[in-house]
Write a structure and sequence with these properties.
The protein is α/β, with parallel strands linked by helices. It is built from 11 helices and 10 strands. The strands form 2 sheets. An 8-stranded mixed β-sheet has the order 1-2-4-3-5-6-7-8, sandwiched between helices. A two-stranded antiparallel ribbon has the order 9-10. Helix 1 (11-34) crosses helix 2 (37-45), helix 6 (178-184) packs antiparallel against helix 7 and helix 6 runs antiparallel to helix 9. The protein is globular and about 50 Å long. The relative contact order is 0.12. The model is unreliable at 1-45 and 300-330 (pLDDT under 50).
């Protein structure tokens, strides 16, 4: 028997219900693809503010600010870039603390921590080790460094390899790999880049209180080869380069990054500026999650070649197969 047709006066509400349901489902899928409500909001409405719930911990005659949350191994340690502190990790830190133990802190001369005179990357690593020990935090550590923070975590990891489960470099500063790019660039442009880098070193000294000459030597000797590395970078090209020159410089740049470790995975993050943890926190959380899962699996991972070329975006360890950029985060 044919069912009676729905009265005309009820059809608009049915259509409206279907539209609302469709929008709700679409919104739910978008949030899920972004990695959860926190990351969805950070990606579209600006990063959430960091809520300081930590405290100052004494290390000898000085105190450093530390905020640790969550449970599980490994313990993720966040290291800010030049002039930064714990407040910059508001979009990422809570998400990671829901996955495993996670800590943000302010190194000497930054944020809520005490001042320190002229020192080096190795000295800063000693500070962090003393801080974690005083607070009762335990290894293995998974280190996350943004920009200059990448140099800090590399120095820390090289001196304490047995305590480190892996490293995530977030558009990190790797001046010891810069010579490869200079060699690949036209001589006049290479000279300009070298002058710009020298100015950056001066700025680091003034901002961070680092003895950069000594720190640069420490960084050059700080091998993290063999450690699991997730390297997130932003694609950038100098407009003064021709297409062929840019390709050569890119290849040298990516080779330099991959040479940091035999187990490096390089990902060029789309839709982001230098502050990937603010523009694309989903990518940072995803990289951390991969290393957390690897550390928990406690099994060897095939060695990567540490090389990726455009238009590919990520190199899968041990396969030489590149991953196309994910388009479903926006």
């Amino acid at each position: 028997m044919e069912r009676p047709r729905q009265p005309l006066h009820r059809r608009p509400s049915t259509i409206l219900y279907a539209v609302v349901l469709g929008l709700a489902l679409g919104f739910g899928v978008d949030v899920w693809r972004s990695g959860g409500p926190g990351l969805w909001l950070a990606h579209r409405a600006g990063p959430p503010a960091y809520e300081p719930l930590g405290s100052r911990v004494e290390i000898g005659e000085r105190s450093l600010y530390l905020d640790c949350r969550g449970r599980g191994d490994p313990t993720v340690i966040f290291e800010a870039g030049m002039g930064g502190d714990s407040s910059g990790w508001g979009a990422v830190f809570p998400e990671v603390a829901g996955l495993t133990r996670a800590c943000v802190y302010d190194r000497a001369n930054r944020g809520r921590s005490d001042l320190r005179g002229r020192h080096t990357l190795a000295d800063a690593g000693d500070d962090l080790a003393a801080l974690l020990a005083a607070a009762g935090e335990r290894s293995p550590y998974l280190l996350v460094g943004h920009s200059l923070g990448g140099a800090y975590v590399r120095a820390f990891a090289a001196a304490r390899r047995e305590q480190v489960a892996g490293i995530v470099l977030v558009d990190a500063f790797n001046p010891d790999r810069f010579d490869r790019q200079l060699a690949a660039a036209p001589p006049d442009l290479a000279a300009t880049w070298a002058a710009d880098m020298a100015a950056t070193f001066d700025l680091i000294e003034r901002t961070e209180g680092l003895d950069w000459a000594m720190s640069a030597g420490e960084l050059a000797m700080a091998s993290v080869n063999g450690l699991a590395l997730e390297i997130l970078v932003v694609g950038r090209r100098d407009p003064r380069l021709t297409g062929q020159e840019a390709d050569a410089v890119d290849a040298a740049w990516l080779d330099g990054l991959g040479s940091l470790s035999s187990e490096a995975r390089v990902t060029i993050v789309e839709g982001s500026g230098h502050f990937i943890h603010l523009d694309r926190p989903d990518e940072v959380v995803a990289a951390i999650r991969r290393l957390v899962e690897r550390a928990r699996a406690d099994r060897p991972v095939p060695v990567a070649q540490g090389r990726t070329d455009r238009p590919n975006r990520a190199l899968h360890p041990g396969t030489g197969r590149a991953e196309a950029p994910r388009k479903d985060h926006r």
